Amino acid sequence: MARSDVMSSYWRGFRDGMPFFLVIAPFATLFGVLATESGLSVFETVAFSVAVIAGSAQFAALQLMNENAPLLVVIVSALIVNLRMAMYSAALVPYLGPLPLWKRVIAAYFIVDVTYAASAIDYEKHPDENVSQKFAYFMGVMTPVCPLWYVFAALGAFLGASIPSENGLDFALPIAFIAMVAPALRTKAHQGAAMTSCLLALGLIWVPFNLGLIFASLGGMAVGAEMERRGLL
Asked: Is 191 part of a structural domain of the chain?
């Protein structure tokens, strides 16, 4: 196999990933600003982004930290939000499973919504490409997405650190989270899951340690899965 074939796949992935810069830049910057407004240092904000590299889970964790939720609740809630990554990983196994372990570890770390979605579509369009080309495409999509998440999170953290605490942006975090979730409510199953989780979260607000949020998340997922099983899309 010619190296040019692998590089061709890489650059095709890079081109497909580039438009997401328009989403990554403001989203990561906002996270950085809000993280420092919530009391995290610049280093902690960047370390958070590198360790988790999942926007929705990071915003959810930040919201719970603002509410002084116990650490275990924060971690479990972030894991629940990120359960979809396990499904993404399973879906990519037929394509990237034959890779050496070290490459699979790299791919697993960089599986996010963008890299999964772009790769899944491309792999169906190019079924004849070998596993090296598929991995190259995946890494090509990742290149303009994941490193920029770190960079703009750091930029936002520096900006946030310069904003006086009395001019806090507390209101922006829930608004940002709503803006992030709302466009995903495309089907009845999504809407049913969201409505169920909201009602349960309100009804279980009395549960200590903010555990009601976890129960609400599980209830919402159960309702959404059942609606999908019944074909209510």
From this structure: yes
Full pLDDT tens readout for the chain, 233 residues: 567 788 999 999 999 999 888 888 888 888 898 888 888 888 999 999 998 888 878 888 888 888 787 888 888 888 877 877 887 898 899 999 999 999 999 999 999 888 998 998 899 899 899 999 999 999 999 999 999 999 999 999 988 777 655 555 555 556 655 665 676 677 888 888 889 988 998 898 888 766 787 788 888 888 888 888 887 76
The first and second tokens of residue 127, run together, are: 């079924």
Note down the domain range covering 223. 185-233
Return d(Cα 5, Cα 59) in angstroms, integer. Answer: 39
137 domain residue, yes or no: yes
pTM for this predicted structure? 0.74
179 in a domain, yes or no? no
